[in-house]
Amino acid sequence: MTESPPDTAEPAHRQLGMTDDEYESVIAILGREPRPAELAMYSVMWSEHCSYKSSRTHLGRLPSSAPWVVVGPGENAGVVDLGDGWLAALRIESHNHPSFVEPYQGAATGVGGILRDIFTMGARPIAVWDPLRFGPLDEAHNRYLFGGVVSGIAGYGNAVGVPTLGGEVEFADRYAANPLVNVMALGLLRREQLVLSAASGVGNIAVLLGAATGRDGIGGASILASASFDEESGSKRPSVQVGDPFEEKRLIEACLELYDRSLVVGIQDLGAAGISCATSECAANGGMGMDVDLDSVPVREDGMTAGEILMSESQERMLAIVEPAAVADVVAVAEKWEVNASVIGTVTEGGSLRVRQQGELVAELPAASLSDDAPKYDRPLARPGYLDELWAAGLTAAPPGDVAEVLPALLDDPALGDRSWIYQQYDHQLFLNTIIEPGHDGSLLRIKGTDKALAVSTDGNGQRCYLDPRRGASRLVMESALNVAVTGTMPYAVVDNLNFGNPEKPEIMWQFSETIDGMAEACDQLMIPVIGGNVSFYNESAGVDIYPSPVVGMLGFADPMPSSPPRLDRARAAMEIWLVGPRDETDFAASAYSRVIHGRLDGRPAATNPDVGRGVIAAAAGLAHHLPVLHDISSGGIAVALAEIAITSEIGLSIGDVGWSELWSEGPHRFLALCEPGSMPTLEVPTVRIGTMGGTTLDFGRHGAVELSTATGVWRAAIPRRMA
Amino acid sequence: MVFPGTNCEHDVVHALDLIGLQPELVFHKETDLTGFDAVVLPGGFAHGDYLRTGAIARFSPIMGAVTAMAATGAPVIGICNGFQVLCEAGLLPGALVANRDLAFICRPVHLRVETSRSALTTGAASGEVLRIPLNSYEGNYVASPETIREMEAADQILVRYCDASGTISDAANPNGSIGNIAGVCNAAGNVAGLMPHPERAVETVLGSTDGIGLLRSIPAFADLVATRP
Question: Per the domain annotation, does B139 fall within a domain?
Fold first, then answer.
């Protein structure tokens, strides 16, 4: 079993997290027993984290093509065409286990890693988002993890000079011993700057750029990211890397200058599995081999073994493939930016990766075997037994109550309250692209010098996916698409981060497979390509798995962008409040109302409707060019969506004919639209006026009322009062 | 001025372009500023802010030319990290330390203009309230009581944190700065620094245009110096 703790009596391959069968495959490939360094390389490259061995069987069901996709899944980042020579690169990753072991550095190096994936493609990273999950904030250790992760993201992201435009956050018991730290980055580039990771051209030189290689992060991919947690996880701290944003900032500027001057033919970042991964991928992608000399690798300490140097996950390193004549220029650019540059290898004919240390051959293997021959498992699936009971038990209506009690309780929930405590720690304005800042449904970035804009939303709802992974995943895609639509863009591409428990349990694999189907179905219906993603398994601690937690990162695109995009703070007195989309009063499965007010997690979430979904998304994207406020209805239902508009705009409202259950129900495909009196356009989707802005009260008529000042105070304090 | 780790340089260039100037980026290893009318040290994390903010940047080769330029009376402006570098280099009084709440702050703040005699405030009126983004971890201005008294006597306080109505209060102080001070200048007024980012408030679509007046002060002040008998 891969999760048993290291035991000195165990054979070497098992200590490295490799099964006996996998070890036999290595022997079959090499025709002999592997040398220690070779075993180290296979163990990391064939880990769950690097090889996707449990998930590859299923990932092919996601749609990944569209005419505007330039680079699909498999490269460092997905790339789409924005017209006029502009491309956007998007990538999402997880840094869950490192962040539990060491929250500040775990989160910081997550940011560093995702940025390298983006500038490896030739793009300047222009923004980062961080979807997060923690245990409830009433426990001190959860507050420590949450605070540490947020300051790690801020500490690294702000210093490296890339704005962080938010993300999203949820708190639940299931994440207490296994928090989720996902990170997504967006880059922008001109078409001619696109660089891929192929090492073409016999005799070309491999130049290692950036930080020296140390013993940090050895086995991060195989030991930390590809096994479940147990009581000894604290001792895995040395497997967490340490980040240096200043090194990364210089590395970014140096690489962008190398691309500008066309000095590299290929480049690859060093992340999981370090030099092993970068050299073998560059060689295999180009159909070549490579000779690597480990004595040329700058190291932080003496006496590092070949295996340690090959496996180290020291941060802030890149491998550039350069024509021999360009080496001097590459070294000069590196010197300008105070970045180390070392020639460590040569591209060779044939597919063999040969590694030498002190003249001795320490590894010789087919480069492609590290990726192409990795094991692929079709693990058994089983529908969990808990579902039937939970589906039968859910609320179908809200028991009678008073807005004055229910609404403040919801606004006080840290997942629904004001998140500015988080995003005010992030520089979210750098580069002067930010038109809609964090705190809205989606962020909106302009592309300077054009009329184009990109919107981004990240969304996840693990509890809904727990109750029905297929419907939950489909709803995520629909919600995320609506979130970018209310900023005035149309959904254009998706990346996904699939955070799940232990794949060796059939119930977890079933959740995974259902999630893929739900996501594929919704992406097909909306014609949105999935251009990249990441799978994080083994999010299990002491036998308890997290909720199935797919996170969707949606990219929206507009050309031209709205001249005055909708914002939550643009509501004014006398504006009409409209509900756009189907009426709904029965969807309480995994709703905030069920969780916060009744402490329950049960029922079956409503299904999506592709025709309605498409119609509502198109309506929102169109209205965004004319109306001052549009707001997606999600957690907390209509009532919380209304409160967010009122609080942010500092004005009250009164609501007419909306039923009690309808206030809290969370059915899909709905948003609120505000307009000047008499100016609501006719739409092809259901539209009904439900109220008017004005006054100093949130007045829900027969259902009760809350003073705006009370609602504001509770909402603003939801996170700060817990973190004080 | 670009140090390794500087990150607001492209934003400052964008903003200065918008107001009709001809900005050029100068790398920190240069030593000559001949031909330039003014210098802006933009925000970021020069040399990673290792050791202490601005502590290494002050030794960069270009700082000799910056100091010489300051001595001629030409505008030398520091924004955020640039302000920290000017303090560390001794071109401005005081220093910047970690925020009162030990957390990074990125949000718009209100500033009250205290004097229009500097290279950053020639185009603003005393008492005017501006809304400009703040973005810093070490934005907490400190100086000895004597220094503060001397600066106040010499009219060297440029802007203070205030509320929307212009009232200076503890509640309107985001980071604990002494006297709510957000920006200061030297005795001659040509060397000026502030923590908030005027270049982030130059277009309606970004939420504020209140930074334009401050940035326009730079050429206006340079003209004043040039035409002085």
Answer: yes
Phi and psi torsions of A278, nearest 5°: -65, -45
Say if B218 falls within a structural domain. yes
Position A226, amino acid: S
- Residue range A153-167: mean pLDDT, rounded: 94
Contact A435 B133 (CB under 8 A): no
Between strands B76-79 and B39-41, the pairing is: parallel
| Closest B-chain CA to A153 | B104
Query: What pTM does this model have?
Result: 0.94
Residue B173 lies in a domain: yes
Contacts of A635 (CB under 8 A, 6+ apart): A415, A416, A461, A591, A592, A666
Interface contact flag, B45 A435, Cβ < 8 Å: no
| CA distances from residue A531 to A69, A168, A445, A559, B186 in whole angstroms, order as listed | 7, 21, 20, 21, 54
d(CA A724, CA A199): 52
Amino acid making up residue A34: P
User: Domain limits at B175?
Assistant: 9-227
Query: Which CATH number does the domain housing residue B107 bear?
Result: 3.40.50.880
In this structure, is residue B2 part of a structural domain?
no
Cα angle for residues B159, B162, B164 (degrees, 5° grid)? 120
> SS3 letters for A240-260?
CCCCCHHHHHHHHHHHHHHHH
Q: Which amino acid would we find at residue A146?
A: F
Is B80 one of the catalytic residues?
yes
Q: What are phi and psi of A663, to 5 degrees?
A: -65, -30
Q: Which residues pair with A360 in a beta bridge?
A: A357
> Considering only CA atoms, which of A51, A76, A92 is closest in space to residue A553?
A92
* Residue B126 to residue B115: CA distance in whole angstroms: 5
Q: What are phi and psi of B154, to 5 degrees?
A: -95, 10
**Strand-by-strand arrangement of the A549-558 sheet:** A434-436, A443-446, A453-460, A549-558, A490-499, A530-536
Buried b or exposed e, range A665-680, using 16+ CB within 10 angstroms = bbbbbbbbbbbeeeeb
What single DSSP character describes residue B197?
-
* Tens digit of each residue's pLDDT (9 = 90 or more) over A17-51: 899 999 999 999 999 999 999 998 999 899 998 89
The answer to whether A577 and A633 are in contact (CB under 8 A) is no
Q: Do A431 and B10 touch (CB under 8 A)?
A: yes
Judge if ipTM > 0.85.
Answer: yes
Please count the structural domains in chain B: 1
Render the burial of A629-648: b for 16+ CB within 10 Å, e for the rest: bbbbbbbbbbbbbbbbbbbb
Q: Looking at chain A, which residue has its C-alpha nearest residue B174?
A: A424
Per-residue pLDDT tens digits for A546-583: 999 999 999 999 999 999 999 999 999 999 999 999 99
